[in-house]
Each structure stands twice: as structure tokens, then as C-alpha cells.
Amino acid sequence: MVQISLLFVALAAVSVNGAPLKKRIAQVIAESTQQWEKACIAAGGGQQCNPLSVASFSTLLAAAGPCGQQDQADKMIDLAKQLNNDATMISLAQIFAQQPRNTPSSQSVPYCQKAPKNQQLNGLFQCQFQGADPQTFVGGAKVGAPGTIPFGQNKPLNPAGSCKANPGGPIPDGTQLVNIAKNPGVGGGKGQAGGNGNGNGQSNAKGNQGANNAPAGNGAANNGAPPPVQGGAKAPETGAKAPEAGANNAPAAAGGGGGGGGFKLQNGKDAQALNAEFEGLTAGSPCQDGDQACIDGGFAQCVGGKFAITQCSGGTKCIALPLVNKPGTSITCTTDADAEARIKATGATGGISG
């Protein structure tokens, strides 16, 4: 059974008059798309599944925009349509579109204010976590201000923090909606493993620890992987900022790479340089908001000038890897053996850190 963990990072108080500390509410974001990725692989999606899964769950980070999650859910459904309109993939994409996003300050997260591409997502919006203030949204906006009411509605939600898949209200901090909701609350796909229902009870379906595994021979499994990030924190060569959702972290094809120089060799060397640089970082290292890195084996994101670290799962750790199909690097959770193999395949020598 997937172990759900919470990551709370205390932020500095905004007042010297004894105001309570505001805490970050986060989650193991990789778990939000594990079941979708498993369904995608079963439907024949192959190497398309993992990069889209990783790009999608990265939109749950606090720094992501309000519509990134919906945009990625649209892409998840686009792929499902290519795979014979796979109903399980569509249903799980609908649930993903309603998963709460991380909040950096215990405030509700704004809603996307545009229509989705696919009709299966019409009327869907994310739930909120129970620990989020239902009256104040990130940035200080009060209920009724732009972004505090879901697109297409003209009045605040009742109950606050609810969504179609969980109409009774917000969900417990750090938990995954896919493990709670039996169906997405709308049509367009069959219910997930727990069967059909009204979304108001505990599902019998549990997250599958192996659901995020890529097919054998196609590169590493990204169990618990944080989002791919081009470059890394404090890396002037690559900018050290999170990329747009959808950064390519496609696993290397079996026997691929071959070392052949060009951008592949440079990608390998750049990944080694980042890994060497990450070895010198700690949770207390200075950073700028949006910086991302690997620290002490975990995925680190800079929030409020401090690194918040999410540990990898499934016996993996955070490592910089070379991209396969274009210049650049990514950081994700994998094994030492897989990272060494991917870097070696580019022609770079010297192992993970050069």
C-alpha cells in the first residue's frame, strides 16, 4: 500500500506581533498520476506514458500556474483518445484534474479561469486540502475575488473546498483524491479500481507502488519521481528554474544512446556537473524561489527563500539525468545504476558526478 506522507515547512511569520506561523501544505505529488500511468501502459501507450505522467504531477507544485493542472489533464485525455478512448485513463485524468495543489501558506489555491480543451473536463476544478483557509486564497485574495470561484460559476463553492469527485468538502492534507474518490463525479469514463459510486466514501482502491514503472528495457522506473527540471538549483549554465510543464524526460530506448557525441554527450556532461554541484548543497543553502535541485537524495524546491525537500520513494533518490531527444537535463528520482547507465549511454565517462 502506498505510504502517504506529509511535508510541512514552516515559513517566517509576517508580523512581529505574535501572528501564527503559516505552514506549507504539500503531498507526494508523484502518487497523483501513478494509477493513470499504469492504465496508460496497459492501454499500449508505451514510452508516452511516463513523461506525460511526470509533467502532469509537476503542476501540483506550489509554483505552478492555476491552469497548468487542467492543461496537463487535457493532454492525458488526448492520449487516452489516441488509445481507443481508454475509459480508465479518461476517468483517472478527470480525478487528477481535481487533485488539490500544494499551498505555500495554508491558503486556498486559485482556480483556473479558462475552459478546458476536452469536454470530459467541463465543470471540473481542484478540491482544496482541509488545512487551507477557505476564506483566503494564495496571495491574500478573499472569496469573491478573481480566481476564488471556479470557472463557469457565479458564486462561491458550498461547501468550500469541495469538488465534483468529493462534493462533501475538502480532503485531508497531503492525501490523494484518487485514493478517496470512487469516480470523478461526471461522465466520460468508467470508475477506477474501487468501482462506481457517488464519490462520497472511502474507495477500496489503493495506490499501486509499482504503478509508476516504465516497461522493462525502456529505462528507469520513476517511482515517486519529482518533476523533471531542466538544469538545477544554483546552476548558471542552465538557469536553475523550473521548466514549462511537459519537459521531456523520456526514458532511453533499449540499447539507445550509443554515446555518439553531439547534444547527447553534452547532456551527459551537464548532468554530471549538476550532480557534482548538488553534492555541495544542503537544506540551508541560499536559493531563489523556483530553484529546484537534489539535496540529501530528495527533490528540493525553493519556497520563500528556503529549500523544501520531498524524499523519493521506492528505494530511489533524486539525481540529474541527461535528456534523450533534445539538449538539456532533468532531475528525477531513480536508482544509481539507472543514472549511471543513462549517463554512460551519452558517451560521458566518470559515472554520476564525473
Question: On the 0-100 scale, what is the average pLDDT?
Answer: 76
Radius of gyration: 20 Å
Lateral arrangement of strands in the main beta sheet: 1-2-3
> Major sheet, described briefly?
3 strands, mixed
State the helicity in percent bands. 10-25%
Compressed to H and E, one letter per element, the order equals HHHHEEEHEEEEEH
Q: Helix- and strand-based class?
A: alpha+beta
User: Please, how many domains?
Assistant: 2
What's the shape?
A: globular
Tally the helices: 6
Percentage of residues in strands: 5-15%
DSSP strand count: 8
Weakly predicted, low-confidence segments:
1-21, 188-260
N-to-C span: 37 Å
Would you give an account of this structure?
The chain is an alpha+beta fold and 354 residues long. The chain folds into 2 domains: 29-179, no CATH class; 222-354, no CATH class. It has 6 helices and 8 strands. The chain has helices at residues 34-42, 49-57, 68-82, 87-96, 262-278, 336-345, and strands spanning 107-108, 133-137, 141-142, 292-295, 298-303, 306-311, 317-322, 329-334. The strands form 3 sheets. Strands 1-2-3 form a 3-stranded mixed β-sheet, with no helix packed on it. 51% of the residues are buried. Residues 1-21 and 188-260 have low confidence and may be disordered.
What characteristics describe this protein?
alpha+beta, three-stranded antiparallel β-sheet, three-stranded mixed β-sheet, 20% helix, disordered N terminus, 6 helices
What is the structure about, briefly put?
With 354 residues, the protein is an alpha+beta fold. 20% of the residues lie in helices and 10% in strands.
